[in-house]
Amino acid sequence: MSKDLVVNKEKTIEVSVQEADFNLAEEVALLEYNNNVDGAVVTFAGRVRNKNEGLAVTALTIEHYPGMTENSLKQIISEAKERWDIGRVKVIHRIGRLAIGEQIVFVGVTSQHRQDAFAANEFIMDFLKVKAPFWKKEVTEAGDKWLNAKNSDRNKAEQWS
Amino acid sequence: MIKIVFFATLREQLGCSELSLPTTGITTINQLKIELINHQASWQPYFENHSLLSAVNHEMVDGEHMIKSGDEVAFFPPVTGG
Questions:
Q1: CATH number of A13-158
Q2: Is residue B72 part of a domain?
Q3: Closest CA of chain A from B7, distance in Å
Q4: What is the pLDDT at residue A10?
């Protein structure tokens, strides 16, 4: 990779809210570049499903609160850093219109050993779901429809407390 | 003045994404909701919805949070990203 990542605790957290797609291989390479202390790299990628609550979905539009989304994601990552011994963290969340199969979200975490990266990655996703100000609207066969927040997502995040 | 922004379902229900109000008489988020209902009576059901979330200067707050001049206040439904 030509892109230099400064190996400094402060610089190892990166958050991006963007319309553009991301490249999984490139994100993994960035997490690994010049990083020989971490033996574990755990990544999660979320994509647009073709169905939700029984209705066929053709696309999603994602609205967000500029400024607050970035703050919220950084806070979630800071909490993860306090709980686990993790190295680098990258979170990407896309906004705008996304078709079926397109990538929506990426969470990448490195750590010396796998347990910390696995747990922190799941924690970040769970809290992103209930704290970060993004809202999905589905384009379905029955018209456009805002998604309702799910109790299961709230319960999942509460399990960490 | 305080700047107030609305998102997602709420923005569509109100037909408004942003407005400014003078701070006179407004001290908390709950009082601001009353002020917004006074501003437009048809908004009452939306601001009396208990699942509505609020943020001040990009931080989540509850109804008792004190607002000051220059603050940016946001109201929105529960989030659904990821």
A1: 3.90.1170.40
A2: yes
A3: 7
A4: 43
Number of Cβ within 10 Å of residue A142's Cβ equals: 8
Domain count, chain B: 1
* Residue-number span of the structural domain to which B7 is assigned: 2-76
- Under an 8 A CB cutoff, do B78 and A149 touch? yes
**Minimal-distance CA residue of chain B relative to A96:** B81
Here the CATH number for the domain that contains residue B16 is 3.10.20.30
Residue A77 structure tokens: 């990552």
Looking at residue B78, what DSSP letter applies? P
Q: Check pLDDT > 70 for residue A34.
A: yes
- Can you give the pLDDT at residue A142? 86
Domain membership flag for residue B54: yes
Per-residue pLDDT of B2-42, as tens digits, reads 999 999 999 999 999 999 999 888 889 999 999 999 999 99
Per-residue model confidence (pLDDT) at position A54 = 84
Q: At how many degrees (to 10) do helices A114-131 and A68-83 cross?
A: 150
Burial class (CB in 10 A: 0-12, 13-18, 19+), B54: buried
Q: In chain B, what residues touch A16 (CB-CB under 8 Å)?
A: none
- Min distance A85 CA to chain B CA atoms (Å): 24
Q: Which residues of chain B lie closer than 8 angstroms to A68, CB-CB?
A: 55, 58-59, 74
- If DSSP codes are grouped into helix, strand and coil, which group holds residue B11? helix
- Complex prediction ipTM: 0.94
Q: Closest chain B residue to A128 measured between Cα atoms?
A: B82
SS3 A136: strand
| pLDDT band at residue A11 using 50, 70 and 90 as cut-offs | low
